[in-house]
Specification:
With 198 residues, the chain is α+β, with helices and mostly antiparallel strands. The chain is 35% helix and 29% strand. It has helices at residues 8-18, 63-66, 120-134, 139-144, 149-155, 164-178, 183-194, and strands spanning 26-35, 40-47, 56-57, 61-62, 68-73, 77-83, 87-91, 94-98, 102-108, 111-116. The strands form three sheets. The chain has a six-stranded antiparallel β-sheet, with helices on both faces. Helix 1 packs parallel to helix 5. The protein is elongated, with a radius of gyration of 22 Å. The two termini are 42 Å apart. The relative contact order is 0.16. The mean pLDDT is 85.
């Protein structure tokens, strides 16, 4: 059965909605440069952010934010920046590479979408998520930069309160089921052994 193709803005709207969750955790997973203490050095391997890269650059953004290659929002959403393959150009005896820029891949529980670096709605979401990482986010500035109706609708509105206990309970049920244990049967077993109902 073929996969149902979703509109990429449905996926981006899911990210925008996740950014409305109160105290949402945004982590930078990899950088495109290595921190050497007094700046960053570019190399070809993704780097894991260090504590030093949390310092702000010109008081505006952390070095981690500036060099972010991939980020994670909550437990299920990730955004990755991917460099396009360069074009090899040959002129006479010389050969050189032309940089073709990069694009972004957004993954959520509902699917995956690809965005060009010139997409204003995507850039607004990417930059707001990174600002949340740095704790310099400005919700009003973010929401005013959105143009797509689906993304606007998901982003506009009050913060969504998290119920930490409910999330932990759901996670525990998922873990039990992944181990092949039925939660209701486990509760019944515990009840018969202890005489206390769950």
């Amino acid at each position: 059965m073929p996969k149902v193709q979703k509109d990429k803005y449905d996926i981006l709207a899911e990210v925008a909605l996740a950014l409305r969750v109160e105290n949402q955790k945004v982590e930078i997973e990899t950088l495109d440069a290595r921190d050497i203490g007094h700046g960053m050095v570019y190399d070809n391997l993704p780097q894991i952010p260090t504590r030093r890269t949390k310092n702000t650059f010109n008081g505006i953004a952390s070095l981690s934010r500036i060099h972010a290659k991939s980020i994670k929002i909550g437990k299920d959403i990730s955004i990755k920046r991917i460099h396009r393959k360069p074009t090899i150009v040959k002129t006479g005896n010389q050969e050189y590479e032309v940089d073709n820029g990069f694009y972004y891949v957004v993954r959520t529980p509902k699917g995956e979408a690809k965005f060009d670096r010139a997409d204003d709605d995507f850039l607004a979401v990417w930059n707001y998520a990174l600002a949340m990482h740095d704790k310099t986010d400005n919700y009003m500035a973010f929401s005013k930069n959105l143009r797509n109706e689906k993304v606007q609708k998901a982003a506009w509105g009050p913060m969504i309160k998290q119920e930490p206990d409910a999330d932990k309970f759901k996670d525990a049920i998922k873990k039990l089921k992944s181990m092949g244990i039925e939660p209701k049967k486990l509760a019944q077993y515990i009840e018969t052994k202890t005489g206390k109902s769950m």
